[in-house]
């Protein structure tokens, strides 16, 4: 089921063309897929560690956006795992 959703996501991206501007909300399914495929064992602990010891990551900029997207992907994956 997850592979079908990913296929639809990739197809939608490809058909939009190179000049289309993607929002983070559009790309979240792709980020979630990559996060799951990375199989990082203790991702939640790693995210909390970065939050605690590298507060500059949460400031403005591209790094903050990437970290926020990673955190959102992780939270969504946890939410989907807990629902039947």
TrEMBL record:
Species, as recorded: Gnathostoma spinigerum
PANTHER family cross-referenced by the UniProt entry: ALSIN HOMOLOG
Domain of life of the organism encoding this protein: Eukaryota
Pfam families: VPS9
Segments forming domain VPS9: 1-84
Protein name stated in the entry: VPS9 domain-containing protein
InterPro entries according to UniProt: Alsin, VPS9, VPS9_dom_sf
């Amino acid at each position: 089921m997850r592979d079908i959703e990913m296929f639809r996501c990739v197809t939608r991206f490809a058909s939009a063309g190179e000049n289309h501007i993607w929002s983070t909300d559009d790309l979240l399914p792709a980020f979630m897929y990559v996060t799951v495929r990375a199989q990082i064992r203790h991702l939640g602990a790693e995210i909390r560690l970065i939050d605690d010891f590298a507060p500059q990551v949460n400031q403005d900029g591209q790094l903050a956006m990437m970290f926020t997207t990673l955190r959102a992907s992780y939270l969504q994956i946890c939410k989907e795992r807990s629902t039947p």
